[in-house]
User: What shape does this take?
Amino acid sequence: MRRGRRSLLRSKRAIVGIEAAIILIAFVVIASALAYVAINMGFFASQKSKDTISRGISEATSALELDGVVIAKTSGGKVKYIAFPVKLSVGRSEVDLGQNATVVSVYAPDDSFALLDIYQGVNQSLSDPTDLDTVINSLPSTASAIFVIYNDDNDTVLERNEKAFLVINLGTHTVDEYHNVKIEVKTEKGATLTVERSIPGGLPTNDYVDLG
Assistant: This one.
């Protein structure tokens, strides 16, 4: 009888040991699954944070940057036309300068006028943007602005190997000597490119002036 009881106790202990092992294994598997989920969630959150930071930086910096001096042309001793070259900012691969993707505005607080959204797109018929007289003559008589792209491939997209010239006609408005003028170029993506200059004294009657 004693041997039978001992055998029964040993069998029960063995079964209890196996059950405990199964439960322990189950806990380990569940813990592993939870750890996997937690790690994946961490990677997902890190990637989302990285994407958000990248988008924030992209929107905080302008897609365009000034790539030369600002040139003005006078009419009757006052500034009537303004032109300057731009290029892609560092890290940008391309920017659409189409009329529906870009906004150009001009402000002259000293002369009390503001020209809002006067942009009329890229003039693809002009092959030499440095010939400012030809570009200016292509503008309408009203307040307007156009881009002419140098080394263009017959589209409205400014790419890495291209350079764009923004040419502005103030229309019936002019900017006097010692007054300020500010141009804002807002593209579809990125912050606004702002170019502000002070008009020097001693302006010629009808000629070009380097505004720096």
About this structure: Helices lie at 2-60, 132-138.
